[in-house]
Specification:
11 helices, 26 strands, alpha+beta, 5-stranded antiparallel sheet, 8-stranded mixed sheet
Length: about 425
């Protein structure tokens, strides 16, 4: 599919992350005003809340954009999602309806420069589940701690391993992240002590947003249809806290500090042209988890680090979402297989997305090989793990024919641990 032209001229640039082909959903505010639902188009945000008030987008007898999150709209289901996207496309397309483009006063009121707004969490997070579903990452971490011959747990090639996290810790891009305290026990110590984390890290992930509920098992094909869209996700990780706490039940406090997501929900419809197959299976999956067609996406991903007070960003990671072993649909299917109800607004973290080469590794734990091989930044400084004042930025896009589908940025700055 080529670039779809819009009368919003900035949306026609081949480098904008938000062409008419994208139309991602977010929540924004301007000055002291209330937060509204919005759609990114070029370098502008379209105020959907005001469009609904003006009668240009109607989703039923009751308003759904009068509250600052997209959950009520998600609940309407796939037919409503498709109709709304078609309506937006008609209102914004070059040569489409002139109901908006032909009304200068309304256009000025509902099209606002992105530089003039503050972005918020785009949806109310019901539950958060994080997975460990990237084979390169799992192999790297397993090799570090158990040796290459025992890198993957016996169940890893059969099920997407996950754990239930904290929805309350999910924050939008731009939120500062404070270094956590926790119990630490170095290998040489006789007992643990309580102190600030010394091995704080990032994890490059994608987040899938559940847009329809379930009450019982679902197929992989049905799970794919239940997914409303995707965000970038940084599952901040306290590696030293996790090393002491994780046996036998896995991560707890090590992953409870914060999870940063990008502010724009990129819909499954926008990503449809970029579907790709999951990797070849060396162990056949059980029938309920087998692939139902191409379930991953060709999305280039990048992580940069900027030290405190600097303006030089070093690229740490460059990889692609297609490197995942399990798709979000398979993760959702596994999650629901016990009968666990899934809710509108549930967030599923893909797990760290690493590739086959060192430059593709999606965490500092892997890049520095547990701290044994510090990474040299473009400033000349080195990092084994994140330091106070470091700013981490994650970006990603799918590359189309003369356009790209972007997610915005998932950004966070590390603040020092609180004094106690």
């Amino acid at each position: 599919m080529p670039l779809m032209k819009s009368w919003v001229t900035s949306a026609n640039s081949p480098t904008t992350p938000f062409p008419l082909n994208n139309l991602p959903y977010g929540v924004f505010s301007q000055g002291e005003g209330e937060a509204h639902c919005g759609v990114a188009i070029g370098d502008m945000v379209l105020d959907v809340t005001r469009l609904e008030e003006a009668g240009l987008v109607v989703q039923g007898p009751d308003p759904v954009f009068d509250i600052p999150f997209w959950n009520d709209f998600m609940e309407l289901g796939a037919e409503a999602w498709s109709a709304f996207r078609s309506r937006l496309t008609d209102l914004l397309a070059e040569g489409g309806s002139d109901e908006l483009s032909g009304n200068a006063e309304l256009t000025k009121a509902v099209l606002i420069p992105l530089t003039d707004v503050e972005l918020h969490l785009p949806f109310a997070v019901s539950e958060f589940t994080d997975f460990y579903a990237g084979r390169h990452h799992a192999t790297n971490v397993g090799t570090m701690f158990r040796g290459a011959e025992n890198a993957l747990p016996p169940n890893w090639l059969h099920i997407p391993i996950g754990y239930n996290g904290r929805a309350s810790s999910v924050v939008v891009s731009g939120s500062d992240v404070r270094r956590p305290w926790g119990q630490l026990k170095p290998p040489t110590a006789d007992k643990p002590h309580f102190a600030p984390c010394k091995r704080f890290d990032y994890e490059l992930e994608m987040g899938a947003i559940v847009g329809q509920p379930s009450d019982g098992p679902v197929s992989v094909a049905d799970a794919d249809q239940m997914i409303f869209g995707y965000v970038l996700l940084n599952d901040w990780s306290a590696r030293d806290i996790q090393a002491w706490e994780y046996q036998p039940l896995g991560p707890f406090q090590a992953k409870a500090t914060a999870t940063t997501i990008s502010p724009w929900i990129v819909t499954r419809a926008a990503l449809e042209p970029f579907r790709v197959d999951t990797p070849t299976r060396e162990v056949e999956l059980l029938d309920h988890l087998k692939d139902a067609g191409p379930m991953l996406y060709d999305i280039d991903l990048e992580v940069t680090l900027t030290p405190q007070g600097g303006d030089t960003a070093t690229r740490l990671t460059r990889t692609n979402y297609r490197e995942m072993y399990y798709s979000s649909a398979q993760q959702l299917t596994h999650h629901a297989s016990s009968g666990c109800p899934m809710n509108v607004g549930d967030l599923l973290g893909s797990g760290t997305i690493s590739g086959p080469e060192k430059a593709n590794r999606g965490s500092l734990l892997e890049l520095s090989w547990g701290g044994k091989e510090p990474v040299t930044l473009d400033t000349g400084e080195t990092r084994s793990f994140l330091e106070d004042g470091d700013t981490l930025s994650m970006t990603g896009h799918a590359q189309g024919d003369g356009y790209r589908i972007g997610f915005g940025e998932a950004l966070g700055k590390i603040l020092p641990a609180l004094e106690r």
